[in-house]
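Feature request, filed as a ticket because there's no other form

It would be nice if the structure record came with a short human-readable summary line next to the tokens. Right now we just get the raw output. Example of a typical job, pasted below so the devs can see what we mean:
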Amino acid sequence: MASGQVGSAVAADATSGVRSDSTSEGSSPVREHLPSSVAGIRIPGSRLARDAAEFAREASSETLFHHVMRSYLFGCALFDRRGVSYDRELAFVAAVLHDLGLVEAYRTPAERFEVDGADAARRFLVERRVPAERVDVVWDAIALHTNTGIATRKRPEIAMVSLGSGLDFSGNDLQQIPSGTREEILAAFPRKGFKQDALSTILSLCRTKPLSTLMHPFAEVGRRHIPGFPVPTVEDLLLGAPFAD
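Raw output as currently delivered:
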């Protein structure tokens, strides 16, 4: 996938007015066990970042939580090697919350899972009085993360979530990550059967809300595995349009 154009971002904490990588105290299980860095990649210690990690861990399975953490770390590894500037707290929050739409508690009957996740993240951030402009960046990062061609034309925090999650999902750009960095990330957050877990989740979405996969890559999985999958293809939509030609 193309890396696109990425630019600089302002690194300011959303709630305290200090730098986004500032460390805050905390006593929750996530705050105790989340490492401060992995493979030399710093994990933000701000209150918002740790609250987001705690929220994601409590909402998600261990396999899914490890995926969102790897997504952040792989995204950072790619961008740090390229010398891209970005708001680390904003990138972290968007990454750890990016798959909430796969969690049953946050699924709506018809929306794409990316929109469900973006909406859940928005509610989480609004409750914590995060400034609207920062909330909007997180919403866009989550809503666009499966559309790399668009996400990589946006600001770096949005691009990073797409590239980092895509790398962990399909291995795209994995060759750009040094083997030592890759091994440390996988040791800190093991995959634990991620492939089969992800496939099961995709099929669950296809079965319970098939129309949310209309013109979505997940529809291909539904057509392959579910007999009589009811979602039309792009060709079906085109040829079924009510015009005479």
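Something like this underneath would help us a lot:
Residues 194-245 form one domain.
The chain has a mean pLDDT of 89.
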